[in-house]
Amino acid sequence: MRGDGLRHGCRDTEAGAEQPTLPASFDAYSAPQADRWVAITLRTITPALDPDASDEAWHWLYFGRIRTRRALLQFEPCSVSVTQAGTCITWTIRPALFLPLAHRQGAELPACAYDFKPHATD
Fold first, then answer.
1. Is the distance from CB of 92 to CB of 9 less than 8 angstroms?
2. 32 touches 40 (CB < 8 A)
């Protein structure tokens, strides 16, 4: 993808909580890799979910995954949510541009680069 990628994160919000938490984050390098990560996670947790939450998960696996893949290929963000016993878990996939760092060897640096004097650390 020539430096393009997808940033994937999972947030959960408990009933009555003020802010959602971000327990995990994952950098994918393609749309298939990003939605596969969500699909594997959903398949892994569905046996532990209540029937309604399990239905939400399987609905996305059968129908929503195709829409998610199409949106990601067009660099649009997507999310998938499952609510279990007052806790809403949301997986969000956003397009991200990963920029390669420039290698300093063999490149002429601007004059201002030599003005920086590192300070000694204690």
1. yes
2. no
The torsion angles phi and psi of 19, rounded to 5 degrees, stand at -125, 140
Domain boundaries, the chain: 4-98
Encoding tokens for residue 65? 């995954």
Of 4-13, 14-23, 87-96, 100-109, the least confident: 4-13
**Cβ within 8 Å of residue 23, ≥6 positions away:** 10, 11, 12
Q: What are phi and psi of 66, to 5 degrees?
A: -65, -45
How far apart are the C-alpha atoms of 11 and 64, rounded to whole Å? 19
Q: What is the pLDDT of residues 34-75, one digit of tens each?
A: 889 899 999 999 999 999 999 999 999 999 999 988 998 898
